[in-house]
Design a protein that fits this description.
Layout (H helix, E strand, L loop, with lengths): L1 H22 L9 E6 L1 E2 L11 E2 L1 H13 L3 E2 L16 E8 L3 H13 L3 E5 L12 H10 L2 E5 L14 H19 L5 E3 L7 H10 L2 E6 L12 E5 L6 H9 L1 H13 L3
Parallel strand pairs: 1-5, 1-10, 2-3, 4-5, 5-6, 6-7, 8-9, 9-10
Helix pairs in contact: 1-8, 2-3, 5-6, 7-8
Length: 265
């Protein structure tokens, strides 16, 4: 117990220092480009996984923060070649699965704050209860604020035991073809289901996509690695202050999470 409290005290001191430096304009780790992963924007519970659904009012606070602080939003397809000048900050807002609340709750907020977002659609879920309809996707595309990209056909675990080469090629290739045919736009970005893949899956994915999102963690974005992009997951527990730290002073956020874990939260 004493050792645990020593760790807690050390983490608390580090957090205070990191936050103090940020106030003085000397953040320890303020990335130029931050890539965030969301799912649902809903007041209620998303199926059995409550954490995947961000409250609409919290989503609005985050978009307002980006707008007020001059953090520019970019599509996933704009990441290749993105080279921020000194002092510029960008955020790539990505939403997995294609829940209908991305249209009913998120889209009005994107229009209000003139923010861009990329939705990775599970194509086979189109029109199903709780998921985006074709006409909703087209309306969002027409606004210039939303990009629709691939999250495979049925969100199958491609790396699962028994998955064949035909299964992999169907999920990756057919989802691109269907989206391009239905929406009349180029699809060049993929969100890998559950971030799970092996060399065979990645080789096939690279045949179809220029930008591929894989893991969910705090690895920094590199414009030189576009087929293994890691994202920071945003869930119901996160506040706008958490997002601020992720984009301005990531060290402070990581220390805060360590404090929460030590406290059993």
């Amino acid at each position: 117990m004493e050792k645990r409290w020593k760790y807690f005290a050390a983490a608390l001191i580090a957090f205070v220092i990191a936050e103090g430096l940020a106030i003085l304009g000397m953040s320890l780790n303020g990335p130029d480009v931050t890539v965030l992963m969301y799912h649902s924007v809903n007041q209620g519970v998303l199926s059995e996984i409550e954490e995947l659904s961000v409250y609409p009012e919290e989503m609005e606070k985050q978009l307002k923060y980006f707008c007020d602080e001059g953090v520019k939003t970019v599509f996933a397809t704009e990441l290749p070649g993105l080279r921020p000048r000194r002092g510029e900050r960008y955020v790539c807002l990505t939403f997995d699965d294609g829940y209908e609340d991305n249209y009913t709750n998120l889209f009005p907020l994107l229009k209000k704050y003139n923010c861009k977002a990329t939705i990775f659609m599970v194509v086979g879920y189109t029109g199903m209860d709780g998921y985006l309809k074709e006409e909703q996707m087209k309306e969002m595309l027409d606004s210039g604020l939303v990009s629709i990209q691939s999250h495979t056909v049925f969100h199958d675990a491609l790396a699962r035991e028994g998955a064949t080469a035909e299964d992999i090629r169907y999920e990756l290739g057919e989802s691109k073809r269907l989206l391009e045919t239905t929406l009349g736009q180029k699809v060049s970005a993929l969100s890998m289901p559950n971030g799970a893949y092996d060399d065979e899956i990645m080789d096939v994915a690279k045949e179809y996509y220029d930008v591929i999102f894989t893991a969910s963690d705090f690895a920094p974005f590199s414009p030189d690695e576009l087929t293994d992009i890691h994202r920071i997951g945003i869930y119901r527990r996160h506040t706008v202050d958490d997002v601020r730290r992720m984009t301005e002073n990531r060290a402070a956020y990581l220390i805060k999470r360590s404090l929460q874990k030590l406290a059993g939260k």
